Fold this sequence. Notes:
mainly beta, 2 domains, five-stranded antiparallel β-sheet
Amino acid sequence: xxxxxxxxxxxxxxxxxxxxxxxxxxxxxxxxxxxxxxxxxxxxxxxxxxxxxxxxxxxxxxxxxxxxxxxxxxxxxxxxxxxxxxxxxxxxxxxxxxxxxxxxxxxxxxxxxxxxxxxxxxxxxxxxxxxxxxxxxxxxxxxxxxxxxxxxxxx
Length: 155
C-alpha cells in the first residue's frame, strides 16, 4: 500500500444532475477533490480539501478548481461524482463504502475496512459508495452519501 504522489487532472466530475451548492475555497482546491468544512468554524461558507485532519468532515466533491477566496461548486450527497483512490496499488471494489484519506495529496478516498478487529470500536465518516471498481492510482464514480459507520470490535 502506497499513497499516490499527485492529484490527477480530472475532466469530468459530475455524472448526474444531483444536488450542488456554491461555496468559497479556503485554500487551493482541484476539481475532483473531496472538500468539507475546516476543524474550526468560519463566518462564510468556506470549504477545504480533506485529508482526515481531526474535526474535519467531507461534505462533497469540488466540481471546479479554485484558489483561496474563489467560488467553488460542490457536488453534495445524492450526486454521482468522480473520486480519486488515495492508494497507488490497492483497488477499491464496487460497492465499498468510502472515506476521506489521510494522504498528503488532499481530497482522496479509501475503502472503509468493515472487518471487526481488536478490542476497539472504530467510527468512520463515509462520503459514499463506489459505483464501479476504482483501480489503484486511478479514479472513478461514486454515489455521494455522507454519514457515520461504526465497526464493532472482535473481542
